[in-house]
Amino acid sequence: MHTVFAVVLPIFALILVGWLCRRTNRLGPQAASEVNKLVVWLCLPALLFKVTATATWAEIWQPGFLAAFTGGCLLVFFATLVWRLAQGRSLPAASIDGLSASYANTGYMGIPLCLLVFGQDGLEPALIASLLVVCVLFAICVVCIEVGLQEEKYIGRAVWVVIKALGKNPLVVSPIIGGLWAVTGIGLPAPLLHFLDMLSAATTPCALVSLGLFLAQKQEGEQVGAWPLVAIKLIGQPLLTGFLAYQVFDLPPLWADSALLLSALPTGTGPFMLAEYYQREAAVVSRSILVSTLGSLVTLSLCLLWIAR
Asked: What's the N-to-C CA distance of the chain in angstroms?
């Protein structure tokens, strides 16, 4: 419990800072939206570009782990998406709900937690999981949202409208450019890498402060839908991923335990960033992040007990 608490406490501290700044009017009513724009247009694209531009195939290619962790994420995402659509939610709203139920906080919580639990050997699965979450899962959700937003009736024109919208989205373009850079085999110049490092480091703190700013405002719209998403994230996803890792793919202990622990992480700030960016109702998303982070104190501790068996 102490190990988990040491990682979770700074998250609540950053959310609290944002909440206090808004409550005391140190930051105005538009601050949450403006800080989130900073993350979406500068910080997160820098992180996505840097991660994909510096990744090597040898580091990423762990077939069993990729299949178990990605399989768990995508199955939960699409199952939640279909369930929310069946309840009458729009495709953009259902997509963000699906992301809330499957988007693990692998960067801010997963990397330090894996280092604490597994030592230096835990860094590689944590980095691979972070790459999968922010590039693959995030990109699929953005595509679903863009498809849901377009109003063109003719399929050819509809596809072109979606492609143009994705081409203007920094969260889609930046990892693609980073991947193309990696293919060239040219390393990033030191000044550019330092620039990207500084912007990347601001991603999570700014996103959490933006979340706190948002939570300090009067919440409108449905919020009760957060609890099922939290249950899926903290219980359903680790059970599914654990089954894939231990039973289906029979991964080595380090990789199986890492897949389980990383899938049990609470919801990251990605869904909130998208809800704000696309001007969707963010009340359910913000509550999901807050409640799942608090609930992860229990579920992550149970996972650690299982790992220590």
From this structure: 16
